């Protein structure tokens, strides 16, 4: 159910020891709430963030429907936001964990996420960021995985690459049935975030991939070996094409162990070079040793590590039609 952002929906805790109210943020208090939410950054960054979010709101009137504030009789004490995202997911922007209102805000977000019924909500933060695990748990968030962020600078085609055996068919999103079937198969036995298997409908997963960077169908590939579908490669542009992201690559279990992933990766590098991208970037589970080895061998280097905290709904779709 979509909320009217101008309506002040209150949860009054004045009967308890708390001397503040928790409510969904009205339009008149939005800028102050967002500054409060991001008070850790400089004032000019706060203003830029508010301006950006206001622009997003004009595109989607519901973008801030999950923004909650805690306010006493004089001012906003803390704010927290769950942002609905493509693919039936949500993103958590937590409150200041030191605030006396943090617990109640997290409980309010938990109620809203339950109301929405999203199977997956997440927060991705720097590895050195301080978090309060007990407060996150009040909304059902727990550590899911660390992710290594790797980059290949100035991707180039190597004349010494071996001749390929794969065929890359573009515009994979136009072949919905084939694409969804390959997604299901490629997630079977995956070493990247296996905890997420069975959570979402394949169509939702595809929608979330399409929201990564700039969607261009020519960079979505069905991968074939001997005229049989065996894998997927999805790329997306960022920063006006200066950065290419390897959003997803995977192969079906029956062809694993044959170094086909290396050929798919070479195709990603080739596409990046042809588009004159300055960097090719990706994220990988540190526990996925085969992928880590392949990427490092191709020249990728780590530039960051982040931690994903996730709220996974207990009501997941049936495993025969869902992927992460």
How would you describe this structure to a colleague?
By secondary structure, this protein is an alpha+beta fold. It has two domains: 109 residues, Aminopeptidase, CATH 3.40.630.30; 163 residues, Aminopeptidase (3-Layer(aba) Sandwich), CATH 3.40.630.30. The chain is 28% helix and 29% strand. The chain has eight helices and 13 strands. Strands 1-2-3-4-5-6-13-7-12-11-10-9-8 form a 13-stranded mixed sheet, sandwiched between helices. The chain is elongated, with a radius of gyration of 22 Å. It holds the Pfam family Acetyltransf_1. One of its GO terms (molecular function) is mycothiol synthase activity. Keywords: Acyltransferase, Transferase. This is Mycothiol acetyltransferase. Its EC number is 2.3.1.189.
Count of helices? Answer: 8
- How big is the Rg? 22 Å
Q: Which strand order do you get reading across the main beta sheet?
A: 1-2-3-4-5-6-13-7-12-11-10-9-8
Number of DSSP E strands: 13
Q: Identify the CATH class of the largest domain.
A: Alpha Beta
What is the residue-averaged pLDDT? Answer: 86
Number of domains: 2
Distance between the termini: 24 Å
Give the CATH superfamily of the largest domain: Gcn5-related N-acetyltransferase (GNAT)
Shape: elongated
CATH architecture classification of the largest domain:
3-Layer(aba) Sandwich
- Which class do the helix and strand fractions yield? alpha+beta
Sheet-strand content, in percent, reads 25-35%
CATH domain fold name of the largest domain: Aminopeptidase
């Amino acid at each position: 159910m979509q909320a009217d952002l101008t309506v002040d929906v209150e949860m009054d805790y004045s009967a308890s020891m708390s001397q503040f109210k928790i409510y969904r943020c009205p339009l008149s208090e939005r800028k102050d709430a967002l500054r409060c939410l991001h008070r850790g950054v400089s004032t000019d960054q706060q203003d830029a963030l508010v301006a950006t979010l206001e622009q997003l709101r004009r595109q989607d009137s519901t973008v801030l429907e999950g923004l909650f504030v805690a306010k006493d009789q004089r001012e906003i004490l803390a704010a927290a936001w769950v942002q609905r995202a493509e693919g039936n997911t949500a993103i958590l922007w937590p409150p200041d964990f030191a605030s006396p209102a943090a617990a109640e805000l997290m409980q309010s977000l938990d109620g809203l996420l339950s109301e929405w019924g999203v199977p997956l909500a997440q927060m991705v933060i720097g590895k050195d960021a301080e978090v309060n695990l007990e407060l996150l748990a009040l909304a059902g968030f727990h550590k899911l995985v660390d992710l290594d962020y790797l980059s290949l600078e100035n991707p180039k085609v190597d004349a010494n690459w071996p001749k390929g055996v794969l065929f890359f068919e573009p515009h994979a999103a136009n072949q919905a049935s084939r694409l969804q079937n390959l997604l299901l198969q490629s997630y079977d036995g995956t070493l990247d975030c296996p905890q997420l298997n069975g959570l979402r409908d394949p169509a939702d997963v595809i929608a979330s991939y399409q929201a990564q960077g700039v969607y261009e169908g020519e960079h979505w590939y069905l991968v074939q070996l001997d005229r049989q579908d065996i894998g997927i490669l999805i790329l997306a542009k960022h920063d006006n094409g200066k950065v290419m992201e390897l959003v997803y690559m995977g192969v079906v279990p029956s062809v694993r162990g044959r170094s086909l992933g290396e050929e798919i990766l070479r195709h990603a590098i080739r596409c990046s070079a042809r588009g004159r991208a300055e960097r090719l970037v990706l994220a990988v589970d540190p526990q996925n040793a085969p992928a880590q080895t392949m990427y490092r061998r191709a020249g990728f280097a780590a530039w960051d590590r982040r931690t994903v905290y996730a709220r996974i709904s207990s009501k997941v779709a049936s495993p025969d039609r869902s992927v992460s």
